[in-house]
Amino acid sequence: MATIPSKPSVGEQTKKSWADAVVDALGDHETRIGVIEAQVLPNGSFETSDGAGGAEGWTFSLTGTATAALTSTARHGKQALELAVLASGDQAQATSDHYIPCAPGERIDVGLDLKASAAGVSVTVELLWYYWTGSAWAAASTPSSTVYSSTSNPTSWARRAGQAVAPSGTNPAQAYRVRVTVAEAGGVTGTVTVDGVRAGVYRGKVARARSTAGTISTTGTYTYTVAAGDEHPRAVDVFPDDQSVNTLYDYTVQQWDGSAWVEAPSLHQVRLDPEARFRVVVSTAGDGALVVSTGSYWV
User: Fold this and answer.
1) 138 contacts 221 by C-beta, under 8 angstroms
2) Using CA of residue 70, residue 74, residue 75, residue 78, what is the dihedral sign?
3) What span, in angstroms and rounded, lies between the C-alpha atoms of 165 and 108?
4) Given this model, what pLDDT does residue 198 score?
């Protein structure tokens, strides 16, 4: 990190060394911001249009009469992505444009919100792996990993989350992209709305987590009360600890508003006050377990 100079006194002549330090600090700041931006999936909430009716930062591949469009029917924010398959053989794919850096052996966490007009439509979520040839990105030895594949999808908003391990090999994974595929299956057609796509290196716990409330491995409703006295700011974070990455959890986090249970605005993270109550509702269990971490810094 660049050295931050002390402020000059009133009337003190500005020294070149002081100006140089300011410039160095600004350069360091820009470099760090660039590193962060390189590791974030751009426009995962589809809030930004490309000016032609599509989503900026995403490429679409449509087969048959399939369509892709932005819609105001969003889980959060002002809009989401709607992929429609209308006839036999139709398929709609949305692939993120950005190559996000990774390393072989890292577990990449993927999450998204989705709902289908017909549960039997086929929905597949993949991580596409790439290595650098020296002049361009090319498919890695293992070109993709499927993190979600179902013909029994939620017909109201639900969160899907899980992980895949960046593969090694002759041409190991050095970056990844996310691809969502919707297809007609067994004569079932319809639309699938997608929102809040997130991807990143799995950290195993929330940064600066102070305590873990426990783990969940089966369906059901689990209620927790956060003890007073923990360091502020605090949050609860619920995330899958999925070693086998075969089956994803379907779960929501809800908080008590004083009269009723309401879904947490950020879907899987909730800011909490002392003695606050929250609960995790698991409708479909996955592999591994869900980790419930509380008393954390908000990240």
Assistant:
1) no
2) positive
3) 6
4) 85
d(C-alpha 42, C-alpha 19), whole Å: 34
To the question of domain 211-294 being in CATH 2.60.120, the answer is: yes
Cα separation, 285 vs 218, in Å, equals 5
Burial of 237 (0-12, 13-18, 19+ CB in 10 A): buried
Task: Give me the sheet containing 269-271, strands edge to edge.
Answer: 211-216, 289-294, 235-241, 269-271
**More confident of the two residues 267 and 51:** 51
Question: What are the domain boundaries of the chain?
Answer: 1-38, 58-201, 211-294
Residues 224-252 have pLDDT tens digits of 776 554 443 345 667 666 544 445 677 77
Q: Position of tokens 């499927």?
A: 146
Q: Does domain 58-201 correspond to CATH entry 2.60.120.260?
A: yes
pTM over 0.90: no
Quote the CA–CA distance of 223 and 277 in Å, as a whole number.
Answer: 7
Identical fold, 58-201 and 211-294: yes
| Total residue length of the chain | 299
Query: Cα–Cα distance between 109 and 35 in angstroms, integer?
Result: 18
The predicted-structure confidence for 101-158, as pLDDT tens digits, reads as follows 999 988 887 888 899 999 999 999 999 999 999 999 999 999 999 988 899 998 998 8
